[in-house]
Design a protein that fits this description.
This protein is of the alpha/beta class and 339 residues long. 44% of the residues lie in helices and 16% in strands.
Length: 339
């Protein structure tokens, strides 16, 4: 079926999807948007330099549904793609969507009703159910907090808002100048902090998105950067709330651990962030296989807290990393002896 709409009439919602080599799940994801019970939307799909068949899939649907605006560009990265869609959005509300997730058919109708009834709210997410690579539902029950204060308190510590489930006010996102490149791999978290400082951010109690978890996700491949960015975003928000300059306001990349005392203009920041980062990374399998081990080792050598680090020894052994397991055990025993 071909759906025709008038491009001269402004839509109620702009759906924003960025695609990079997402052909495997793309058709199913697009269909879930086109099958929404609320139909007054435009659908921006940025093909960010995909080398697979993503472009052909996007064009196939665009030819049949005039709500879709396909944008093909060289690979610029997710942050640039998101900001392009923020700039091009014609609707007062932007609904995010990822190219491997599935929106339930009544997602938009529930979210737009909430946003129309709650003018003070700048952003609303939803509950989600995780699915795997075969679209099988997870048995995990993940409850996102509902009210503003609970969500804001969790930002930087947990993941209280699922990015592809979000609907947000275009005017506020533009006022905040969109997503920031410095927070690559956690650009959404930084934006939620900034939105939450000037408007309410909420979650609906309804499960309205199937969120796909795969081994190739950003969260799996860049877990160290994500945890570090989350801690930095939390500290930057505290600076703004307390009336000090935003340390990340003009950055194109986040500073290294060693630069933090200089960036925040006081001592102890580097040491505190290293400890937070080390204690978070022990729960990340992806991080334990990567460069996070050096952060753990430096943390133990400096005499920092060792909560959960013996469990990390056992976890690395089970993961087939006996050398790292033995090295961490040796560092922990040496630190205990010295203390």
């Amino acid at each position: 079926m071909t759906i025709k709409t008038s491009r001269g009439v402004l839509p109620s919602i702009t759906v924003a999807m960025s695609v990079y080599n997402g052909a495997e799940y793309l058709a199913e994801s697009i269909k879930s948007i086109l099958n929404q019970t609320f139909v007054d939307f435009e659908f921006l799909i940025v093909n960010d330099g995909s080398a697979d068949s993503s472009a052909e899939i996007i064009e196939h649907f665009a030819e049949r549904d005039l709500r879709i605006r396909a944008i093909h560009q060289p690979n610029n990265g997710l942050v640039a793609s998101l900001n392009r869609m923020v700039d091009e959005a014609r609707a007062p509300l932007i609904a995010r969507m990822d190219c491997d997730d599935i929106s339930l058919s009544h997602r938009f109708s529930r979210q737009i009703q909430f946003m129309r009834e709650n003018a003070q709210c700048g952003l609303v997410g939803t509950q989600v159910i995780e699915i795997d690579q075969q679209s099988r539902l997870s048995n995990l029950n993940i409850n996102k907090p509902l009210d503003h204060s609970s969500i804001f308190a969790d930002l930087g510590i947990a993941v209280p808002i699922c990015h592809p489930s979000v609907m947000m006010r275009t005017s506020i996102v533009r006022h905040l100048q969109g997503y920031r490149q410095a927070y690559q791999h956690c650009e959404d978290l930084d934006l939620w902090f900034r939105m939450g400082e000037i408007s309410e951010i909420r979650n609906l109690p309804d499960t309205l998105l199937f969120y796909r978890k795969t081994i190739n996700q950003v969260s799996a491949r860049h877990s160290v950067d994500q945890h570090y960015g989350a801690i930095f975003a939390l500290l930057a928000s505290r600076e703004r709330v307390e009336g000090r300059p935003d340390p990340s306001g003009r950055l194109t990349r986040l500073p290294s651990l060693e630069e933090l005392d200089k960036v925040f203009h006081r001592s102890g920041i580097t040491e505190g962030v290293r400890e937070q980062l080390a204690l978070r990374l022990v729960y990340s399998r992806a991080a334990l296989r990567g460069r996070s081990f050096d952060i753990l080792a430096d943390h133990v050598r400096s005499g920092g807290r060792r909560d959960g680090l013996w469990r990390a020894v056992g976890r690395m052994l089970l993961m087939g990393l006996p050398a790292r397991s033995a090295q961490l055990a040796g560092l922990l025993l040496t630190a205990r002896t010295l203390n």
